């Protein structure tokens, strides 16, 4: 199987987008396809990778047939995460990264990767960065492309843009060229830098010939000149100059025809001139579409309806309806574009440049050109372009764009910074730890932009509804025009034909097809602004139906920051020795509890003394240090090794320590509940969540104490990973009909449970590949209260979607009934079409503007 994403530039018709999707679904070699009208993207999956190119040609043919003015391009925004490694080497890395232990005696929901071997990852076993070493050895440095970007200011013609792109590709010194019509940017690749002036001049010559009013500007020069300046907003008139001028001219002639009392023939000529100016383009488009076999589209319907008005002698109404329709379409395009911009502005976190440090010099480059291990400088007011670690400087950063947190965060040397943070005060130097394609900002943007590809049930319903709605209404119109004049005495064709024309005007389902996906798209955007990443409209929709929330404990409801509170010793061993042996045993584990023991020891650990190390799931660790066998873990590991020991009765986690089967003491470790955990449970209850459950591998006393503190309904303790799945299935069986169960974990070691739940929610997933991969929803901070925020957004989105469906269908049905009874005019029909669409779009935008989440 193979997946591919295309960009459908200049796609303005939501109904046509739905038709394109349905037609592509009928292809034999297509497994799945989604057309996202909001992002103008087409994602398809083929059954066989070999059929990819052939399928692509078929898809282009379908798109060109339905929407010939749409420009189809491959989506090149998504950057490959890594250059391809050979299969054998990938297996080596995966094997090392997956050698992960499950320390259920200590609470097996690790906050970070945990492995049972030596030095298997940057976050593992003392942080020896062997994983990075492996990747760096087998992965060559990314070869930088010689690229140049030009801005084509004033470019408004999509067809001309395509011609400019093709002509640019024909220039000898140009290796490749791509023109993005949406942001009016022409990017070309070249072999030699000295060819840039020649290429630029040739491009200017091409542009001047095809589009003389367009200015060719150097993007780098513009960015340098405008650094720190606020971008000017383009006016609505500039963006839609051609359409507005036509409407003004046609509207003026239309008014003259209505005001002056002219003879019938002259009146007809005046109104025909106005009609051609206002609606000529639509008629021409309808004719072209009919030639391609596309009949039931809005162009055809409006053409038939308005020409029909001329035939029955309603000249002013024919022009007026077309004029009103075009004004409505203009408002609709403006509303959709503004909504796109509003949603895009919510995620305006993509960095434009990086200050790359080269010796004593600083070079401004694209973030994509910076490699792992290189150093970048981030100045006050700039976005952090890539993930990394601060090596010099102190500052305050604004993380609100990523996490929704309003309070700035203090960043010092050795602290991690993530791309998308905004530097507020000091200058910092950052060592890059991830390429741009794997950076936090790239992952977030990819998730938000592609979330609409997973459609909600309401969207799928509207897609199916639109497929049958238009033909049914058109057939009804035909019957309404033909049957009464034939069988009803006194019925005239002109009268019933006029009633039929009302049906034709109202038969386009655009109000629904646009506003429903826009509502979900806005909900996903609003969630991301509040620090919640939702992977698809389908997940946003089912969040409102959550009845039971099942929580992991460590790192989810508790901070996962463990501290050694007590050290007990016995058999003539002092406390320092007990702690020392335990630290050596735990030194190769990345579990938070293991880290707390090592941190409490406060001395360097000589790894050469450790001869063997074994982690036993659900029990603990056996390590051989200088010939001595150290056993450290819970009661189970003591009993399985036949070691006599003194049990400790406490609410903390207890690590029992033995040397050569001799019990030498115990260590008590405690975790603390998160600040907003109790508030989170209360918010969930107030949002209609009936059951809150906690699953943990911790002991009974610790688990029950946390459960009581937070007010949880049920607590299951001392569970192995497989036990968690079983308990979740028990909870799932007990849920009410049509209700959902959510599991909330750290997204790394809880993958089986996250996958089994109706919806998996990863806590504290910011920057974590495993969390983003495993979960359906990612909370970008460690705040459990954000789950209630996500549910609120889901409910608000659903409410707005239902309002739009009821409103749009309600108005259309009422006008259809009134029209058939001759109590509504074509003016009312146009309002029921484009007027309702504009109102539905404006209503859908409320989900973004709504603040009380």
TrEMBL record:
Name the CDD domains for this protein.
HMA, P-type_ATPase-Cd_Zn_Co_like
Compartments reported by the entry: Cell membrane
Provide the catalytic activity annotation.
Zn(2+)(in) + ATP + H2O = Zn(2+)(out) + ADP + phosphate + H(+); Cd(2+)(in) + ATP + H2O = Cd(2+)(out) + ADP + phosphate + H(+)
GO CC annotations, alphabetized: plasma membrane
Task: State whether keyword Glycoprotein applies.
Answer: no
Native organism taxonomy: Bacteria, Bacillati, Bacillota, Clostridia, Eubacteriales
Q: What is its main location?
A: membrane
Similarity comment text for this entry? Belongs to the cation transport ATPase (P-type) (TC 3.A.3) family. Type IB subfamily.
Record-given protein name:
Cadmium-translocating P-type ATPase
EC number, UniProt record: 3.6.3.3
* Pfam families found in the cross-reference section: E1-E2_ATPase, HMA, Hydrolase
């Amino acid at each position: 199987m193979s997946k591919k994403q295309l960009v459908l530039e200049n796609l303005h018709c939501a109904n046509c987008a739905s038709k394109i999707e349905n037609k592509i679904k009928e292809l034999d070699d297509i497994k799945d396809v989604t057309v996202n009208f909001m992002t103008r993207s087409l994602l398809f999956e083929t059954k066989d990778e070999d059929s990819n190119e052939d399928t692509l040609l078929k898809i282009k043919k379908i798109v060109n047939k339905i929407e010939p003015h749409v420009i189809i391009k491959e989506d090149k925004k998504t950057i490959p995460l890594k250059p391809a490694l050979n299969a054998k080497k990938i297996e080596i890395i995966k094997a090392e990264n997956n050698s992960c232990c499950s320390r259920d005696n200590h609470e097996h929901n690790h906050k970070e990767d945990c492995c049972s071997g030596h030095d298997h990852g940057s976050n593992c076993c003392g942080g020896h960065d062997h994983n990075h070493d492996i990747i760096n050895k087998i992965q060559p440095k990314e070869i930088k492309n010689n690229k140049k970007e030009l801005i084509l200011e004033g470019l408004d013609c999509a067809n001309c843009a395509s011609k400019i792109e093709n002509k640019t590709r024909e220039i000898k010194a140009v290796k490749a060229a791509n023109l993005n019509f949406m942001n009016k940017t022409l990017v070309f690749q070249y072999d030699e830098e000295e060819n840039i002036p020649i290429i630029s001049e040739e491009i200017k010559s091409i542009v001047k010939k095809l589009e003389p009013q367009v200015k060719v500007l150097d993007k780098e020069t513009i960015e340098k000149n405008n650094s720190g300046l606020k971008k000017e907003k383009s006016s609505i008139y500039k963006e839609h100059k051609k359409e507005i001028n036509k409407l003004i001219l046609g509207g003026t002639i239309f008014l003259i025809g209505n005001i002056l009392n002219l003879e019938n023939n002259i009146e007809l000529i005046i109104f025909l001139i106005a009609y051609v100016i206002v609606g000529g383009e639509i008629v021409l488009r309808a004719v072209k579409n009919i030639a391609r076999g596309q009949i039931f589209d809005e162009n055809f319907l409006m053409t038939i309806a308005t020409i029909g008005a001329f035939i029955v002698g309603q000249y002013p109404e024919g022009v007026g309806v077309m004029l009103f329709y075009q004004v409505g379409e203009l408002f609709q395009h403006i509303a959709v574009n503004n909504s796109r911009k509003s949603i895009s502005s919510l995620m305006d976190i993509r960095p434009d440049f990086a200050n790359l440090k080269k010796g004593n010099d600083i070079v401004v480059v694209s973030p994509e050109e910076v490699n792992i291990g290189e150093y970048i400088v981030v100045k006050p007011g700039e976005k952090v372009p890539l993930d990394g670690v601060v090596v010099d400087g102190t500052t305050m950063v604004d993380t609100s764009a990523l996490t929704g947190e309003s309070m700035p965060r203090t960043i010092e040397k050795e602290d991690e910074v993530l791309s998308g943070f905004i530097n507020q005060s000091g200058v910092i130097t950052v060592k890059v730890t991830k390429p741009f394609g794997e950076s936090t900002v790239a992952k977030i943007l990819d998730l938000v932009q592609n979330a609409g590809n997973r459609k909600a049930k309401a969207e799928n319903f509207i897609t199916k509804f639109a497929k049958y709605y238009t033909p049914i209404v058109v057939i009804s119109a035909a019957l309404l025009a033909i049957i009464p004049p034939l069988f009803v005495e006194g019925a005239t064709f002109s009268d019933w034909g006029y009633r039929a024309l009302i049906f034709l005007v109202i038969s386009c389902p655009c109000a629904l097809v646009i506003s429903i996906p826009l509502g979900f798209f806005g909900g996903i955007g609003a969630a991301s602004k509040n620090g919640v990443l939702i992977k698809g409209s389908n997940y946003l929709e089912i969040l409102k139906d959550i009845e039971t929330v099942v929580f992991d404990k460590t790192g989810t409801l508790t901070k996962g920051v463990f501290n050694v509170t007590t050290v007990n010793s016995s058999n003539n061993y002092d406390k320092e020795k007990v702690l020392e042996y335990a630290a050596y045993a735990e030194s190769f584990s990345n579990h938070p509890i293991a880290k707390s023991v090592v941190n409490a020891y406060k001395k360097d650990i000589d790894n050469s003394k450790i001869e063997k190390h074994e982690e036993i799931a659900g029990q603990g660790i056996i390590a051989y240090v200088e010939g001595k066998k150290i056993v450290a873990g819970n009661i189970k590991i003591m009993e399985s090794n036949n070691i006599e020991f003194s049990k400790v009765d406490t609410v903390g986690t207890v690590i029992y320590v033995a040397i050569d089967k001799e019990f030498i003491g115990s260590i008590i470790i405690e975790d603390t509940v998160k600040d907003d955990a109790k508030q989170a449970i209360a918010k969930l209850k107030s949002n209609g969540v009936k059951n809150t459950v906690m699953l943990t591998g911790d002991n009974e006393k610790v688990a029950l104490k946390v459960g009581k503190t937070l007010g949880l309904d049920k607590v299951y303790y001392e569970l192995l990973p497989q036990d968690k799945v079983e308990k979740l299935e028990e909870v799932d069986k007990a849920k009410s009909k049509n209700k959902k169960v959510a599991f909330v974990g750290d997204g790394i070691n809880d993958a089986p449970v996250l996958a089994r739940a109706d919806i998996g929610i990863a806590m504290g997933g910011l920057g974590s590949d495993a969390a983003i991969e495993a979960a359906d929803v990612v909370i970008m901070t460690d705040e459990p209260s954000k789950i209630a925020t996500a549910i609120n957004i889901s409910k608000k989105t659903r409410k707005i979607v239902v309002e739009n469906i009821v409103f749009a269908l309600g108005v259309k049905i009422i006008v259809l009934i009134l029209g058939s009874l001759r109590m509504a005019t074509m003016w009312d029909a146009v309002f029921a079409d484009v007027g309702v669409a504009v109102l539905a779009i404006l209503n859908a935008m409320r989900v973004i503007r709504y603040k009380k989440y």
